[in-house]
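Duplicate of #3305? Posting structure anyway:
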């Protein structure tokens, strides 16, 4: 029994399995030799490193989608590049780098969905609207499947969704009650 949901550990297991790890090393004691038992620790560290690197373009894209200028988006991505905590977490076989990656993916997907939402009711329920809504749900599910701290991301998305629905309820001129009755279940489902 583990204290965290299994997604990140399964991804690390997959990376180890692809590199030929047989599972006989237990990782319980700090300072044990990895070389003698043949632990492919470089391959297992590669997954968090790749996810840490991919967090940088996600930050740039999220800032661009939210309306920031390119220079501001580059500055934000540059700050993520030199964030000491992310650099440290991405070098080790830990769950935090996948958590940060999936949280950043959720932020990007929800920002894109919000942009579709702000185009107005005429753009609702079209392909891009559904794509970003479903992608937000999938990335939010991945965030929750890495660590329970992902519940805070779910609370953030839920709060913003409630605020968006409150604004829609107040727009009686452009939004019909039928449209509202479809908005709520589709968001809860996704």
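Output from current build:
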């Amino acid at each position: 029994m583990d204290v965290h949901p299994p997604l990140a550990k399964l991804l690390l297991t997959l990376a180890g399995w692809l590199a030929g790890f047989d599972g006989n090393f237990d990782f319980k004691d700090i300072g044990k030799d990895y070389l003698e038992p043949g632990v492919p620790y470089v391959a297992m560290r590669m997954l968090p490193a790749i996810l840490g690197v991919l967090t940088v373009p996600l930050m740039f894209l999220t800032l661009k989608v939210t309306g920031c200028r390119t220079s501001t988006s580059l500055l934000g991505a540059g700050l993520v590049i030199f964030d000491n905590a992310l650099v440290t977490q991405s070098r080790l076989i830990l769950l935090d780098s996948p958590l940060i990656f999936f949280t950043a993916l959720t932020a990007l997907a929800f920002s894109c969905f919000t942009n579709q939402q702000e185009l107005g009711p005429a753009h609702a329920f079209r392909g891009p609207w559904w794509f970003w809504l479903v992608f937000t749900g999938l990335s939010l599910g991945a965030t929750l499947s890495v660590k329970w701290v992902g519940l805070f991301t779910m609370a953030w998305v839920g709060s913003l969704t409630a605020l968006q629905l409150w604004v829609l309820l107040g727009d009686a001129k452009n939004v019909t009650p039928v449209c509202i009755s479809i908005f709520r279940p589709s968001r809860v489902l996704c």
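Confirmed duplicate; merging threads. The CA atoms of residues 82 and 186 lie 39 Å apart. The mean pLDDT is 89.
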